[in-house]
Amino acid sequence: MLALERIPDQTGYLVLTEDGAVLTSGGDLENDERMANVITGLVTLTNKVDSKAFPSHDAFEKISITYKDHCYVICLSNKKIYVVKRKLPVPTAAITEQQPTVEV
């Protein structure tokens, strides 16, 4: 069993081959071929980044795509692409009540 299912606040995951085929998936990303194609395209794009600015020996370790309420974390390991969708904590605004003032 994959440890991806035990990541706190994860709502879905994908494990892809280098060419984008879905090996395993679950949650919100279960069998999500469209997302697999988008992620594979993004990973492929990172290989085409200017090699003078980012030398080839400095391959990325992690890509994070953050939205207001969730994020995607993408990692490469053992020639596989791991994607986890996590929900983010909703920021809470402090609610203050104005107290009546009494003038003396």
UniProtKB/TrEMBL annotation:
SUPFAM superfamilies: Roadblock/LC7 domain. InterPro entries: LAMTOR4. GO terms for molecular function: guanyl-nucleotide exchange factor activity. Keywords: Lysosome. The keyword Zinc does not apply. One of its GO terms (biological process) is cellular response to amino acid stimulus. Signal peptide: none annotated. It is found in: Lysosome. One of its GO terms (cellular component) is Ragulator complex. PANTHER family: RAGULATOR COMPLEX PROTEIN LAMTOR4. Belongs to the LAMTOR4 family. This is Late endosomal/lysosomal adaptor and MAPK and MTOR activator 4.
